[in-house]
Amino acid sequence: MSDQMKDRMKDIVSLCKRRGFIFAASDIYGGINGFWDYGPLGTELKNNLRDRWWHDMVIAPPIGPDGTPISIVGIDSSIIQNPKCWEASGHVGGFNDPMVDCRESKKRYRADHVFVLTPKDGQGHAFAFDKDAQNEEIEKRLKKLAKNKSINDFDRESLDQIPAADFLNIIGPDVKMAGTLTEPRQFNMMFHTYVGATAGDENKAYLRPETCAGIFLNFKNVLDSSRVKVPFGIAQVGKAFRNEVTPRNFIFRSREFEQMELEWFCAEEDVPKWFDFWVEQRTNFWLSLGIPKSELHFLDVPKEDLSHYSSRTIDVEYRFPFAAPDFDELEGIAHRGNYDLTQHQEFSGEKLSYFDQQENKRFLPHVIEPSTGLTRGVLALICQAYTVDENRPSGVYLDFHPSMAPKKAAILPLTAKPHHVEPAQKLYMSLRDEFVVDLDIKQNIGKRYARQDEIGTPYCFTIDNETLEDHSVTVRDRNTMAQERIPLDKVKAFLREKIHGK
RNA sequence: GCGAGUGUAGCUCAGGGGUAGAGCAUAACCUUGCCAAGGUUGGGGCCGAGAGUUCGAAUCUCUUCACUCGCUCCA
Q1: Nucleotide in closest CA–C1' contact with A393
Q2: What single-letter DSSP state applies at residue A113?
Q3: pTM across the whole model
Q4: pLDDT computed for residue A177 by the predictor
């Protein structure tokens, strides 16, 4: 990251805090790593992005390649599911082994793959070895480091059986000094909890690490209740949790985050057609929100980097300041095959196949998954909107697309006198049912414009003496700072046109 | 997790073993009011937390927490 871009991120983070977009979670307690709270404006922004996605997916889905609207329904599944779900998805198992790090050699060991020789007489250090270590090399090492003691002078134990308090006396497998091993840690990315009052392994449960599982679990329920036919989609927006080793880059990688996921179910032979369709649709989505094509990058994920279930994935990447001049992931569009339905069918014992009456055949649909980080989208919108302009008092403004801006307009009486304030209040009341608008009366007009610039309000309506004479107001455009006069009774139509384009 | 750096007001920062500072923000009031204007007044911090050294610590030492960067991790 260049210094300039480092500063840019710092400026963005501090603006977000100063103006009430995003705060550190538990701020007054010193924060908690990897968690963030959304303030008044950040919440509006996030809701705008979420609502727009929901609208474009579920309320008014795109027109398909054949010219007719496609079919998508929405669900909202539980964050905690039966733990078997995560065994089926592959999230539990294989990654549950406690690991031990060596501070000196920088190596990482599975605790059950390391054994320890503890001196029978309790004198001197204990020695750790890789489980495959041969007697010959063990003796050699002991001769060197343990004053010619031999294997017979030691008890052998697996490292995961030894209390962490005793680690200080252990010399790691690849070093010559004691006390460099960390205590064993689980490296599972899932947060776990216990369902019910007693905390035991039998009622251990997990917070979902991705929202898509809830969609697969409800595939049959939706099929049975919604009259949908393949191809169709199920959409969901919600929180997901991953115990990231290193949360980084503001809200980009956090431990609690929000996803907007669509699972598109189709026949295997139609996969290429729909894959291209969704890449195009999702690209258009970001373009329509003001992310320019030049700041987007499409990464056809190389075979060796693909998840085990995916045969093709395209990452839609955005040039986040911390990644610039490179890009980082904003959305992934993955062909998941029928891996998920296959797994859940096997683990649950429920038949999850689809019967196509016209073709008279039964099959497990393939899945194309456009999966977006809602909170990453919010960050992309903020980064893209952040515009330095030394020619204006605020020095910076947020160039949000009007439909994304947390406040659509501010209503500003030129003075705090009743003859300006009263018409302003009237205008405010007539707009607030339909638009998120601010009524700001106090302080001089320049300061109020500047404040709206900084939070990205696209329009300011000012009530002045002319308003009293001819029922017109001035509209100030955020980006150009230019003003025009429009009739009071055209304000609503003006906003509708600017925000919805109609 | 490892290594380096940082932590002082809402934000950005200065200072530095002896009574906590600036700019901006924020609140109130004034004005013949269109771009952070001028004026007056106010609120806000025991200097990230804990321990130690000292007559005395925001300042020095240690521990811890958080953040930033690099590595690692991101199935």
Answers
A1: B36
A2: G
A3: 0.85
A4: 73
Looking at per-residue pLDDT, the higher value among A94 and A399 belongs to A399
Count CB-CB contacts under 10 A for residue A187: 14
Residue nearest B49 (alpha carbon to C1'): A30
Mean pLDDT of chain A: 88
Task: Find, among A261, A253, A276, A274, the residue nearest to A340 by Cα.
Answer: A261
| Residue A230 contacts residue A340 (beta carbons within 8 Å) | no
CA torsion A121-A125-A126-A130 (nearest 10°) is: -150
Å: A115 CA to B51 C1': 38
**CB of residue A483 closer than 7 A to nucleic acid strand B?**
yes
Residue A395: phi and psi, rounded to 5, are: 80, -10
Residue A448, pLDDT > 70, answer yes
Q: Distance in angstroms, CA of A28 to C1' of B14?
A: 25
Rounded CA–C1' distance between A294 and B64, in angstroms:
45
> Does residue A416 reach within 7 angstroms of strand B, measured from its CB?
yes
The per-residue pLDDT for A248 is 82
Q: Any atom of strand B under 7 A from CB of A26?
A: no
Cα–Cα distance measured from residue A19 to residue A21, given in angstroms and rounded to the nearest whole number: 6
Nearest residue, CA→C1' of B2: A103
- In 3-state terms, what secondary structure has residue A391? coil
The pLDDT tens digits of the residues spanning A15-33 come to 998 898 998 888 877 778 8
Residue type present at position A45: L
Q: Residue A181 CA to B75 C1' — how many Å?
A: 24
Q: Using the CB atom, is residue A442 less than 7 Å from strand B?
A: yes
CA distances to A80, A453, A469, A473 from A421, in Å: 51, 22, 15, 13
